[in-house]
Every structure is written in structure tokens, then in C-alpha cells.
Amino acid sequence: MTRAKPPKCPTRAKPKIGRPPTYQALFARQAERLVQDGATDAELASFFEVTTVTIWRWKTAHPEFCNALQRGKDLADDVVERSLFQRATGYSHPAVKIMQNEGEPVIVPYVQYYPPDTAAAFIWLKNRRPQRWRDRPVGDGEDDDIARARRIKAALSEIEDTVEQPAG
Predict the structure, then answer these.
(1) pLDDT tens sequence across 69-117
(2) Domain segments of the chain: what residues?
(3) Is the predicted pLDDT of residue 28 greater than 80, yes or no?
(4) How far is the C-alpha of 66 from the C-alpha of 25, rounded, in Å?
(5) What are the residues facing 92 on neighbouring strands?
């Protein structure tokens, strides 16, 4: 699946005077592959033998690095999304069982079935149809914050009406 919004990466920053940069153009492709496998910024820093702050700086200074990270993360998210959908709806796949018969190995092919998982289905529906499957039911059609503000205003009005005004 592709994302609707492009990643938010800044334009290339001007180099500053100081220590020579450790960044190389090859790092973008390497980082993309690492984040496809779920690598975090700390793991990227360990791989490139720099600090996490350096990874953050590379993201802002090198748009190709930032875009590569976004592409890799998007691909990983798509894989997880597909896996969650399969888990929610149930799926099967070919598998083999290896047994022994009279001292000889016997390979028996079969189809492994995984039934639908209600927790995965709930997570999927909560994210895909939040109005119908959110954790809190929708009240009387009003936005929760607006309804809360109206209740507070009414309570304050009641308090003001019951408080006696000092004689003066």
C-alpha cells in the first residue's frame, strides 16, 4: 500500500565549517534496508557507529537519507498491515511435518490453518473505522470537548446563583 502524504523532509542544508562530515551517500540505501527490518534510530546509530543525535542531524541535512528512511518504514508498515489483516481474517499456508518411521525420516506435507483472531480484528476495525469501533462510544452526537465545556459552564452558573453576594 502507498501512503497518501509524502514524507516531510527538509531541503538540503548548507554545509557548516567544522569537522568533516561522516555521512556518505551510500548510507541512505543501507538505512532504508535496515528500517525495512524494523531498525530504530538507536540501531541505525550503532550500525553507522555514530550517535543517535547524528542520525537525527542526517535526517535534516540530507533529504535523500530522510526519504530513504521514510520509504523503508512505509514498506515495513505495509508488511505489518498485511500480517494484521491476515491474522484478523484467518489464513492458511502449506507446511511440512517431519516424522520418523522405522528409522527413516518421513516428510508429510499439510496445510496449516490459523483461525481469525478477534483482538487483531478489533485493532483493524478501530483504525479503519474509528467512528464505529472506537473504545469510547460516541455520546449524543456532540463533540466530547464541546459537551464537556457546556457541562462545566452550566455547573459554574449554578454555583454563581447559589453563592450569596456580600453586603456592601
Answers:
(1) 999 999 999 999 999 999 999 999 999 999 999 999 999 999 999 999 9
(2) 26-88
(3) yes
(4) 12
(5) 113
Which of the residue ranges 15-24, 46-55, 76-85, 133-142 would you say has the lowest mean pLDDT?
133-142
In this structure, are residues 9 and 66 in contact, taking their beta carbons and an 8 Å threshold? yes
Cβ partners under 8 Å of residue 42, min gap 6: 52
Phi–psi pair at 117, nearest 5 degrees: -110, 120
The residues, any chain, with a CB within 8 Å of residue 108's CB and separated by 6 or more, are 96, 97, 98, 99
Q: What residues contact 143, with CB distance under 8 A and at least 6 apart?
A: none
The reply to whether the predicted model has a pTM over 0.85 is: no
The 10 Å Cβ neighbour count of residue 62 is 21
Residue 36 has which C-alpha cell? Answer: 525495512
Question: Which residues, including other chains, have CB under 8 Å from residue 133's CB and lie 6 or more apart?
Answer: 122, 125, 126
The phi, psi pair for 163, rounded to 5°, reads: -80, 130
